Amino acid sequence: HMCSWLNNKQHLDIVDGDSSFPTTINFDSCIFEEAQLAAGNAINIKNASAVTFRDCVIQGNLSYFTINMEATSAQQTTADHTIDNCWFEDNGNAQVNSTGINLIGVSSQRLRGVKLINNRFHQSTANKPNFQVRMQYCDDTVAEFNGEHFGGTFLKNDGNNRRSRLDSKNTSTSEIAYRPHAHAWVAFSGA
Fold this sequence. Notes:
Blueprint: E1 4-6, E2 12-15, E3 23-28, E4 31-33, E5 41-46, E6 49-54, E7 57-59, E8 65-70, E9 82-84, E10 87-89, E11 99-104, E12 111-112, E13 115-117, E14 120-122, E15 131-136, E16 138-139, E17 142-144, E18 147-149, E19 153-157, E20 165-166, E21 173-177, E22 185-188
């Protein structure tokens, strides 16, 4: 349950090893603040399954990606991560293309079933990331009931995403691709 990760080079590096597979890890009411690794990830999750962040505060991290969730191997359970009711503030240190939550798979191994629900993104002008959420090669992503005070792109589509559901009523500009439907691009604006 409650934990604090403060002033580290990198807070977490949850990566599939040769003999074990990280799965079912829960972070409840935790603080992740001021990661110092500007060129990397404050929280890195690669080829893992069912990692959950609930009621966490994630702020002031200088990393290029605040949370990086990635699928690169043939692991069949690279899926089902949840970020629920978390507070994001002043992450990314205004680096070009910096991202709050980076969701990325590859064509042969897609990142599946990520849920981003009821999170709040608050950014100052100087420290905001360019994108709050960035997706590529993701399936069945759900982003609902999120809100922000940001003004940039809430969800950046880097392509090849399928079956995603996005509620952007309380967010700024979002873009997402639906294939092979005729309405290839949909742009949303805040309410």
